[in-house]
Structures are given as structure tokens and as C-alpha cells.
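look at this fold:
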Amino acid sequence: MKEDLLHFIWKYKKYPINQLVSTFGEEIHVVSTGMHNHLSGPDFFNSKIELNGQLWAGNVEIHIKSSDWYAHHHQDDVNYDNVILHVVWEDDISVYRKDGSEIPTLSLKEYIPLMVLNTYQNLFNSKNYKFINCENEFNEVDEFIKNNWLDRLFVERLEQKSIFIKELLDYTNNDWEQVLFLMLLKTFGSKINREAFIEIGKSIDFSIIRKLNDKPLQMESLFLGQANLLGSTLEDDKYYSELKKEYQFLNHKFNLSPVFKSPEFFRLRPSNFPTIRLAQLSAIYANNNNLFHALIENNEPNFSDILKSGTSKYWDTHFNFGKISKKSKKGISNSFLNLLVINTIIPLKFAYSRYKGGLENELFLKMMSEIKKEENSIIANFGKLGISIKSAKDSQTYLQLYNNYCTKDKCLDCAVGASLMNVKV
């Protein structure tokens, strides 16, 4: 038995509602189960319960055993003073409030239909699944239920990404242009260097970025210098020496302090080397003034024209300083452009829309539906289940489903799992 199943049973009234009796012998009628609380405090707020015909309003706490009340130290927490009903699977001890009054207890053990328990056990204890709990039943769920749930998950994913954007807004005193800069750095840093790139961004006063517009050499030297990538001596590399000289000038002028630790090269493909990514981003900022307006406030931006600025010619024959490579343009690829739009532009557009009071969910659904799907092992495994994933809107949605529900066994909070249990969420 798990507590989340008891939450599910209580929330969706999977019990005989007209036959409930407390361990005191009081008849129980559930007028309102209350609002499910996923944070600290009682499990359900503002419940309404009739005990022997008398209406009580307050909170409901749920445990596997009554004694969990004391194991969790609720007797010392004022947040639990207004609990009017203790719902448990097994009543093994009497529970009292701080004032000495005993809390009525409902033991669900004798009331739950065997079908509910069997369905739950089959969902979580299958020995056959390799990827997700419901992989054998996923395609049996009604398409209308799934499609509505997936649309909700897409918006939920954007809302989740907005939390980080809100943190950046607090850090920058609501400077959306600087937030865009830090968000772009996060994506350009990829999984290996995202944190390091954000620290590089935070080490630069954004007013300096504004002053270096139309100065590509200085912009690039600023990015690479702050990344602590210009600290060596390479006398045979003329371009490196030029960048280092420019950075020394900027360092003196703006009193700069580079990050302590340089970004990683290890385990990265050359096209993802921090030298290349920082050179690409510096070119974008050197060639575009007021990037936030161009990308976020503009309703129909041409992402490719704005974000696919080429790097300096030096990088055509280099991935790192001092090492000549086969000649190739180091512009941003279409696949990386899609990642920028998926992970930076659309989340920022969504957050900015909410900031301005807008609710254009359909716009973001449409934009994501026009972008090619992401390719990774999670998406591939959903594909093996016969699930059609056609666009970035689909891949983002299934990533949200997998990472926030499937891997956490939150099946009872998912419309697919709840449907298999025969209720709506």
C-alpha cells in the first residue's frame, strides 16, 4: 500500500460513500473531499465532512497507519490543528490534537473494492514493462483523454520552464534583454556547460554587451576572455593574440573578472566546443541590436536570419586555438537552431506573454507544431510503443510526461494512469 493510492481513493471517492463509519462509530458523509495539497501541510484543504449529521469544515490528513501522525511529528505542528478527519489504511493507534481532543479516524481498509487494488497493483508491479508502467495499456486509453492531457502537459512544461525565467528576472531586476542573454547562454552551453555558460553571462555587466554592438572582435574577446579561454600564450596564433589584446583593453576599461573555471571540452563534439559556441553567440550579439525585440516581442520573427550569424573566418579552420582543422563553416546548424527556439525563444515568449497578461496557448502550440521533433532515447522508446511523435510540440510533451510522471511513478496524477483506474483528472 502506498500513500498516493489513498490520496487517489479519497480524492475520487473510490469508496462506498453512503456506508462510511469512523473508528468512533460515527456515520461519515463526505460533502467535499477538499483541495488536494501537494506542498507541506495537511493533504486536503477546506474539506467538508458530516459526522453524525453535524457539518465540519477543515482539513483532512491521510496516512498508511494512524501512528504515522506521530512519526511525522504532526502533533507539534500548528498547521495540523484544524484537521477534522484522519484518513488511514490501518488504524493502529488513537491520535490527539494539541488540545487533547481525539481526531475522528476513517480506516479505508474494509471499504476499498478489490478491483481498485488489483488495478493499482497491476499498474505498478508489472514484471513485463521495460520503459514505463503502462506501456502495455497506453494505447488502450481513449484518444480524446490522451490528447487533452498531452495539451495540458505541453503548457505545464512551459510553465515549469517559466520558474527559471522568473528567477532570472529577479536576478536582473526585470531586465528581459539580459534574461534572454542568460537563457541563450544556457542553451549554447548544452548539457555539459550550461551552468558554466550562465556564470560567464553573470560575470558580464549587460551594459557592456550593449556598448559593443557592431564590434565583433571586441564582443568575441569579451565572451572568450570572461570564459577564461584567453589566458595562455600562443605567439604563433595571430588571431588569438588579437583577441587577447582586445580583452586586456576591455578588462582594464570595464574592470572585468573572468570566471574561475573554464568551460569543459571533454566529451564534447568539436562543433559543441565552448570556443565555437561562444564565437557563434558573440556574432549574434555583434550583429543584432535589441535582440529581445527582434526575437520575443516580434510576433513573426525570422529566427534563421537573426540567429544564424556566421563566425569570424578564423573559426572556418579551427575548433580551438592553435590547432588547424579541415576547413568548414561554423555557422549554427538547423538542428541547433531548433533547440534554441524550443529551449529559449518559445519559453521566453510564453513567460513574456504571461507577464503582459496574455494567454495565447494556441500560438505556442502552433509554433512548436511547426518545428521538427527532438531525437533522443526517450522519444525513441515512446515511438517503439507505437506512439506517433511528429513535431517538437509532441516531443516536448512526452519528455514532460516521462520526466515528471512516468519516472516518478506519479501514474495516479496522470490522465492515462487515472483513466486505467477508471476516473478523470
Notes: The first helix runs from residue 3 to 11. The chain has 17 helices and nine strands. The CA atoms of residues 158 and 347 lie 6 Å apart. The chain has three domains: 3-112, 116-171+347-425, 176-332.
